[in-house]
């Protein structure tokens, strides 16, 4: 017996028959059988290496092992991340009609097998933990007659179900780093002709041993692939979280865009007629789109916080409207000083009470005008106020005035303050808007440096095109309709709708649903967003489901649906 093998036959085993010399015909049959066996193992290896779904792979390992040995039942254990327990992941039993774990939809609820006792001693009493600890396979002809292991649990199971556990083969699964990753346990090998339970022959044992080796490689590869995928997702989500964390006002934007993007994509997949009847995103394409949505604003990691968070026109590190308030108070104090000085001069010259009252009224009028000018400037600082030509002219007229500051003449408003206050719409200057727009350039550059696998290779394209428009007036590359993928169009609608309806923006009140949909409708007419994507977004009710999940109750109002097209006139 080799040092990697432990065979237990027990007291129930009968006397071994004397081996008889094989005939020529038997040798030929054995050669044919071995050829079939090798071909089968080759097919199994290819099947295992091709399977990427972990649950299906786990299930396949047990099914193939049972097929090779004609075993009635099989169990697969996987070593848990701590390396201290064996967890049941698949359990199959033909006689009992049991299918647990894998793709069965029935979870395995059995407790794990501990590799070590509470006092830290290795658990060699349980056959599966013993195999995991020693990496030796165990082949038992009859568990009721075997010694050295605790089969009380097996007997209890048999007693409660009426099953009769007999022959057992337990095989370790070791990966390329010589680490134990799992244990495969087979029960009750059956004679292929009679159906009677027999022991696991040497031929069957070697077949399972080969399978376990191939399965360990396939499972390790799957775990590595899933691990890399999880790492990629975690990395992207952490970057997205960092971007959201830069601004308390846009926190959650990326999460919501991802949610809405996938809602729209899933709705497109469900279409059986209309413009998207022939469109069906594969699981890989859905994953690619989801990751692009996660990464669509990754370039904002380089955008200055004071630009991202600019809630008023004069805001930088602080809102500079406070500087203007202070300046206007200083101008007001100067007016008071001017009044007192003139009153003293009039009094010294013997001026009448009427003259002094007239001066006081004039100075009060100038004070009220000053307060009115300040109130107007404060109103211009709010991005919700559209700046008409008249309002811009008044800002410039106020700025043209000057006041005395320690003998130096200074304008009421600086050139930079005038430029910001005269922003016609929103809170950003052209230069600041360019900084914001450049986040898409950075996004494309950052994602373009990542070695995405082929199935995810279009992530930079989708993520970097969410601000492009069908008419070519978007940014950063001014792509037109013919150059924009459906995925980029979906992401664009999701991004715009989230921005319109977001309830956490400091520069605007939460927009009602009907108003947001109306704006998107205008954007369709202007060829800024895709009308087919928006049409499905509207007609399918995706916007309602999203609104109920993310918007305030008071934002959700009735959205008028477009009238159906008139029927064609009869000929």
Structure description:
- A hairpin with a 5-residue loop joins strand 2 and strand 3 (85-93).
- Residues 1-5 and 563-568 have low confidence and may be disordered.
- This protein has 3 domains: 5-13 and 24-225, GAF domain (Beta-Lactamase), CATH 3.30.450; 248-297 and 457-555, Hypothetical protein af1432 (Orthogonal Bundle); 321-427.
- The protein has helices at residues 24-50, 54-69, 127-134, 152-161, 202-246, 253-269, 283-295, 305-308, 321-348, 353-380, 389-399, 415-421, 430-448, 459-464, 486-501, 513-525, 531-539, 542-550, and strands spanning 5-8, 71-79, 85-93, 98-101, 113-114, 137-140, 168-174, 180-190, 197-198, 402-405, 408-411.
- Helix 6 packs across helix 15, helix 6 runs antiparallel to helix 18 and helix 15 (486-501) runs antiparallel to helix 16.
- 31% of the residues are buried.
- The chain is elongated, with a radius of gyration of 39 Å.
- Strands 1, 2, 3, 4, 5, 6, 7, 8 and 9 form a 9-stranded mixed beta sheet that branches. A two-stranded antiparallel ribbon has the order 10-11.
- The protein contains 18 helices and 11 strands.
- With 571 residues, it is of the alpha+beta class.
């Amino acid at each position: 017996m080799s040092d990697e093998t432990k065979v237990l036959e027990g007291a129930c085993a009968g006397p071994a028959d004397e081996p008889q010399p094989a005939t020529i015909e038997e040798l030929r049959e054995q050669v044919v059988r071995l050829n079939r066996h090798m071909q089968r193992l080759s097919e199994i290896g290819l099947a295992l290496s091709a399977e990427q779904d972990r649950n299906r792979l786990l299930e396949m390992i047990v099914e193939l092992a049972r097929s090779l040995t004609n075993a009635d039942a099989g169990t697969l254990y996987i070593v848990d991340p701590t390396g201290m327990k064996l967890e049941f992941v698949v359990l199959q039993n033909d006689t009992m009609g049991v299918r647990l774990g894998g793709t069965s939809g029935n979870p395995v609820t059995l407790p794990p097998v501990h590799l070590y006792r509470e006092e830290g001693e290795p658990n060699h009493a349980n056959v599966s933990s013993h195999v995991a600890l020693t990496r030796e396979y165990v082949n038992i002809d009859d568990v009721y007659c075997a010694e050295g292991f605790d089969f009380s649990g097996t007997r209890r199971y048999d007693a409660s179900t009426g099953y009769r556990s007999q022959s057992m083969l337990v095989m370790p699964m070791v990966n390329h780093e010589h680490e134990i990753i799992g244990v495969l346990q087979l029960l009750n090998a059956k004679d292929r002709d009679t159906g009677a339970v027999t022991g696991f022959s040497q031929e069957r044992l070697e077949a399972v041993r080969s399978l376990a080796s191939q399965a360990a490689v396939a499972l390790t590869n799957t775990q590595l692939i899933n691990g890399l995928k999880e790492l990629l997702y975690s990395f992207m989500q952490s970057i997205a979280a960092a971007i959201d964390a830069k601004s308390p006002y846009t926190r959650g934007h990326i999460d919501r865009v991802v949610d809405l993007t996938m809602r729209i994509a899933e709705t497109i997949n469900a279409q059986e007629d209309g413009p998207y009847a022939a469109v069906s995103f594969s699981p890989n394409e859905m994953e690619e789109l989801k990751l692009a949505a996660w990464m669509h604003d990754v370039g904002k990691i380089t955008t200055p916080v004071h630009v991202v968070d600019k809630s008023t026109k004069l805001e930088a590190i602080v809102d500079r409207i406070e500087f203007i308030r202070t300046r206007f108070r200083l101008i007001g104090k100067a007016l008071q000083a001017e009044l007192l000085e003139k009153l003293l001069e009039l009094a010294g010259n013997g001026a009448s009470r009427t003259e002094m009252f007239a001066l006081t009224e004039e100075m009060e009028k100038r004070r009220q005008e000053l307060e009115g000018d300040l109130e107007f400037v404060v109103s211009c600082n709010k991005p919700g106020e559209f700046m008409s030509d008249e309002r811009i002219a008044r800002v410039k007229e106020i700025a043209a005035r000057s006041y005395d500051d320690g003998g130096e003449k200074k304008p009421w408003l600086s050139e930079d303050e005038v430029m910001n206050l005269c922003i016609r719409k929103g809170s950003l200057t052209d230069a600041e808007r360019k900084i914001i727009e450049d986040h898409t350039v950075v996004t494309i550059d950052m994602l373009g440096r990542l070695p995405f696998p082929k199935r995810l290779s279009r992530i930079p394209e989708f993520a970097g095109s969410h601000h492009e428009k069908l008419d070519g007036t978007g940014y950063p590359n001014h792509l037109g309709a013919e150059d924009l993928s459906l995925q980029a169009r979906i992401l664009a609608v999701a991004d715009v709708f989230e921005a319109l309806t977001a309830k956490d923006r400091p520069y605007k009140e939460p927009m009602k649903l009907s108003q947001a949909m109306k704006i998107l409708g205008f954007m369709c007419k202007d060829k800024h967003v895709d009308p087919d994507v928006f049409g499905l977004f509207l007609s399918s009710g995706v916007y309602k489901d999203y609104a109920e999940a993310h918007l305030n109750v008071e934002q959700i109002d009735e959205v008028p649906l477009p009238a159906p097209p008139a029927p064609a006139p009869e000929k």
